[in-house]
Amino acid sequence: MELVVTKNFGNPQSWTLESYRNAGGYQALEKVLNEMTPEDVSELVKESGLSGRGGAFFPTGLKWQFVRSDPKTPRYVVINGDESEPGTYVNRYSLELDPHLMLEGMLIAAYSCNATLGYVYIRGEYGLAHERTQAAIAEAYEAGYLGRNILGKDGFDFEVTFRRGAGAYIVGEETALFNSLEGKRGNPRYKPPFPTNVGVWGLPTAINNVETLSAAPAIIENGAEWFQNLGHGEATGTKMYCLSGRVAKPGVHELPLGTTARELIYDYGGGVLDGRPLKGFKPGGASSAALGPEHLDAALEPRSMAALGTIMGTGGVVVYDDTVCMVDAAYRDALFFEEESCGFCIPCREGAPNLVQICERIMHGQGTMHDLDLLEDLGASMMASFCGLGQFAHQPVRGAVRAFRDEFEAHIRDRHCPAGVCQFSNNGRLA
Amino acid sequence: MAIHAGAPRRSTLAPGDHAKLDDLRARLANMKDEPGATLEALYAAQAVFSYVPPEAVTMIAEELRLPESEVFGVLTFYTMFHRKPSAKYVLRVCRDLSCHISGAPAVLQALNDELGTRVSEVTEDGLFETESVSCLGLCDLQPALMVNLEQHGPLDAEKARSLLADLRAREA
User: Which terminal Cβ of chain A has fewer Cβ within 10 Å, N or C?
Assistant: First the structure.
């Protein structure tokens, strides 16, 4: 299995320029500057099928073409390193272990977009990633990969500013990230206009995930067909999947996009912790609805996950065994979205606490069967939320009810928690 | 000029801390002309005071030429900014899914028991406070926590206690 975005992780001091260059780093950039036009680059990336690894899977080459086509200048390339989706930590690995790969990808994007300015935005909690990425940017300036007339290419200028967040999941939403970069509260903005035309500071912006940009250099070097063949059919290339929860070996694995959950959990994750039975799994972070073991052979890629009523999301796979109460798990997700709702629009601000309350009632043995219908209604209302946070916040709870309805009903009808997590006292309150 | 709305908020500065305002002003000097530097300015204030006191909000508003209300709005939006003095070691314990089902509640409990505090309460010596926070992106280290920005995990009650002992030893 050929690796694209994690290939340098095992190299000594992999985060330094010296190590990156020894591994052939910045050669794709040279090739781009010497042999390709900006149009060639976006066409090649389009042909490769590379799409947004943050979870939206928008075609990357098309995004670059849109930015280049907008006459407003200066144009920006922004790296979204705000990764905060529960169960997801792939960007952290890239930022800590191979920041130059991402910077080279960013420069390739900048050339293709005719962009001259860039931001690297990393969530506030990733201290080691801040250090290593800032050091990498300084090294890149020193070596002439950033600045004016890069690598002697007349007129190719690109300046990068490093920025960190300060604790806010919503800022991973691209327009909220722009507000944060501009020094504002991280509320999302209305779309359209889309960032490719009106992005940071109102200017055309290619905003890409760390992992997406990290794939660009290898596509330049090896070609579109090579990248296509790494995946499964229309799901081209690789994806950094990460495992957590009740799994024997949590960790990051770069695998063909479209790898099955069974392969990931059992072949790479060592199976369920202590060999216990698998109750289910979340395919991609908190926003994704959990699936039962009958879907272990489904491919972890956007289309097949959508067909099952969930999302591929970030590739952060969370494993549940029989010690996990699905009402409690749904409640945790609801609590997360309640905490992280920015409060800007009513369906999300009011809907998320309602999700929490309904889950609490059920866990306390005070739920009714009507509550399960109420969750459906509430979810429909929350679809009116201003941004994706509210539109997805109800999915994990409703998904849990769909896939594990028996367990919810046991709490409601029998005041019994099959996993033994919720303890009901005589008065029906949680003990 | 900053826009002052209503009565000034009650000062939270300790008597010795007023001199630190000059330090903050110096740190803000190179941010004045950088667009969008509000978060970095708040980080600077937190580095000086361990939190962002009302006087710092006023100063940032003046120096960055922003409405004070906007600076305050940014301060309250992001969870890593403190509005009261914070401990030298902030123990951020993840409470989200993967950590939760891997034993995070026992870790938080052990820390609070050992410190004799509740979440977000600073110990009398000013050294420690626990926070119960959203996913830290340390799910491979589940259950995980951060000591300020330092990563720790996987933990259990026992390891959490020995982590505290290590931190106390650093201070001895």
Answer: N
Residue A126 and residue B137: Cβ atoms within 8 Å?
Answer: yes
pLDDT tens digits for range A280-337:
999 999 999 999 999 999 999 999 999 999 999 999 999 999 999 999 999 999 999 9
Of B38, B139, B151, which is closest to A183 when you measure between CB atoms? B38
C-beta atoms surrounding A426 within 10 Å? 7
Element (DSSP H or E) covering residue B118: none
Q: What would the DSSP string read from start to end of A71-91?
A: --SS-EEEEEE----TT--HH
Query: Which chain B residue is nearest to residue A321, measuring alpha carbons?
Result: B101
Q: Chain centroid to CA A378: how far?
A: 26
Query: Rounded CA gap, B139 and A316, in Å?
Result: 9
Q: Distance between CA A166 and CA A168 in Å, rounded?
A: 7
Q: How far does the CA of residue B130 sit from the closest CA of chain A (Å)? A: 15
Tokens standing for residue A303: 């289309």
Per the CB < 8 A criterion, the answer to whether A411 and A327 are in contact is yes
DSSP annotation of A297 = T
Residue owning tokens 């055309």: A204
Could you tell me the pLDDT band of residue B1, with boundaries at 50, 70 and 90? Answer: very low
Handedness of CA B53, B55, B58, B59 (dihedral sign): negative
Number of H helices, E strands in chain A: 18, 8
Is B51 near chain A, with CB under 8 Å?
no
> What is the ipTM score, two decimals?
0.95
Q: Distance (Å, rounded) from C-alpha A268 to C-alpha A393?
A: 29
Strand, helix or coil for residue B19 = coil
pLDDT tens track for A76-110: 999 999 999 999 999 999 999 999 999 999 999 99
CA distance A244 to A281: 10
B39 to A84: CB separation less than 8 angstroms, yes or no: no
In chain A, which residues have pLDDT < 50?
428, 431
Q: A243 contacts in B (CB within 8 Å)?
A: 140
Chains A, B: CB pairs < 8 Å? 141
* B contact residues 93-132, partner A, Cβ 8 Å cutoff: 95-98, 100-102
- Distance (Å, rounded) from C-alpha A355 to C-alpha A371? 10
